[in-house]
Design a protein that fits this description.
This protein is of the alpha+beta class. The protein is 31% helix and 30% strand. The chain has eleven helices and 21 strands. Strands 1, 2, 3, 6, 7, 8, 9, 10, 11, 17, 20 and 21 form a twelve-stranded antiparallel sheet that branches. Strands 4, 5, 12, 13, 14, 15, 16, 18 and 19 form a nine-stranded antiparallel sheet that branches.
Length: 432
């Protein structure tokens, strides 16, 4: 059982900053922030879920355990699915290099949850720590940033490429050969950028990344010495009662400071035949994934190839909804749709096999999903893209980017799209 208490606050943005700084002392942290991107499927402006180092709440690290707990426990769970969960869901494998070694999945039952909606701040604390609500609220009100000695000194970051430009073109052309042979129609080809023997302050790095991008599915996660700093614009899957929603992104264009040029870039993306073909193929894949559980006739494409504008880029997004049976275990919906089509390709299994052959690294948490299950069995998960991954113990930093290869792809253009997507992460790390 959780004790609930709600306060009315005056300055939500200040509270957001205070929540982030205040969370530093905890070993398990998931922070979700929609950066004021309200839409039809909005639930919370921000969520903080935390547990301490000495809590006795068992971590969940297997799919079956997660299914059992979601079915029986009726409480909140926060955590992630890594891309390599695919190997448990299908006859697939991953033997590529992994510099981060995130577990395949990991969830925890938070001791403390704080929800922000408008000017309402709601505390949901487990019974053994519910006496902390008042004092924690007072601390948040008095928080004025982190003292300098609490910040972690960073080292200079030297970013390396896992796949150099010539090798990228060679691999992109091998994807095209598979497409021309009819093995696949589309594949998302990703490459890693990394830094070794490097130290960053994860909280300050996340703040800088979020300021640059201000995306609707921002996330910061700490699980002991492993960190995710995420500026994702994409929702993977959300469940609200019997309704499930997926919003795949395919299609990216740069922004311009000149308003007329920016609008031109947006319109060009909306009319780009290649980008629209990419999006439509993946939307069809999502429709097929959702239909595995959906009630007959309930899968609907609510939006097709709609262009949305974010701080760094324009994105083409489609929205697909479906109605599922009341008694469906929520985790089964993940099993039937994971990994998300926007990060794999079509047909999905063939694309994942070829991706594994041609990419140089295991994706791990990149291309996975972070989010929560609530006590009613509802959930919301993003797509882990535009993200920095960090292992503090190994002093290893990684970020990956990708683009969709189709029959109409030009490898040079795909490479430039990758660099555009990498721009925010690189600029943040180079100023650490």
């Amino acid at each position: 059982m959780r004790k609930q208490r709600t306060y009315t606050i005056s300055h939500p943005l200040r509270i957001k900053e205070a929540l982030l700084d205040w969370s530093r002392k905890y070993q398990k942290i998931v922070w979700l922030d929609d950066n004021d991107h309200c839409n039809d499927y909005h639930s919370y402006d921000a969520v903080l879920a935390i547990s301490g180092q000495t809590d006795d709440l068992k971590d969940i690290d297997t799919l079956q355990q997660l299914k059992d707990v979601v079915r029986d426990n009726r409480d909140w769970l926060f955590g992630y699915f890594s891309y390599d969960l695919k190997n448990e869901l299908e006859d697939l494998h991953s033997h590529n290099f992994d510099g981060l070694e995130f577990p395949t999945l990991r969830f925890f039952q938070p001791e403390k949850i704080i929800l922000l909606n408008g000017k309402e701040l709601t505390f949901l604390y487990l019974e053994h720590c519910d006496e902390d609500i008042e004092s924690d609220y007072e601390q948040l009100l008095s928080q004025r940033g982190v003292l300098p000695q609490e910040r972690i000194p960073s080292t200079p970051i030297r970013i390396k490429m896992r796949i150099h430009k010539d090798a990228y073109f060679e691999k992109a052309n091998r994807f095209l050969e598979h497409i021309h042979r009819g093995d696949i129609y589309e594949a998302n080809f990703c490459q890693e950028f990394y830094a070794e023997d490097s130290i960053i302050d994860p909280w300050e790095t996340y703040k800088r990344l979020n300021v640059i991008s201000q995306p609707p599915f921002a996330c910061s996660m700490r699980l002991d010495e492993k960190y995710l700093l995420c500026a994702s614009p994409e929702r993977y899957l959300k469940k609200m009662g019997q309704t499930v929603i997926s919003q795949p992104i395919k299609g990216t264009a740069p922004r311009s400071r000149d308003k007329k040029e920016d609008e031109k870039l947006k319109q060009q993306l909306a009319q780009d035949e290649k980008e629209r073909a990419e999006n439509i193929m993946i939307t069809d894949l999502v429709r097929n994934d959702l239909s595995k559980s959906a009630l007959k006739g309930s899968v609907i494409v609510q939006e097709l190839c709609q262009v949305y504008t974010y701080k760094q880029v324009h994105q083409m997004i489609s929205t697909v909804t479906a109605t599922v049976p009341k008694d469906k275990n929520p985790v089964e919906l993940i099993e039937e749709t994971f990994p998300m089509g926007s990060m794999t390709g079509a047909p999905k299994i063939s694309a994942m096999k070829i991706i594994e052959e041609l990419e140089e690294t295991k994706r791990g948490l990149y291309s996975g999903a972070v989010g929560y299950f609530d006590p009613n069995g509802d959930f919301d998960f993003n797509v882990v893209i535009r993200s920095i991954l960090y292992d503090a113990a190994k002093k290893y930093i990684s970020y990956s980017v990708g683009s969709a290869i189709t029959a109409k792809s030009d490898p040079e253009r795909e490479y430039e799209e990758c660099l555009l997507k990498a721009k925010a992460m690189r600029s943040v790390l180079e100023t650490c």
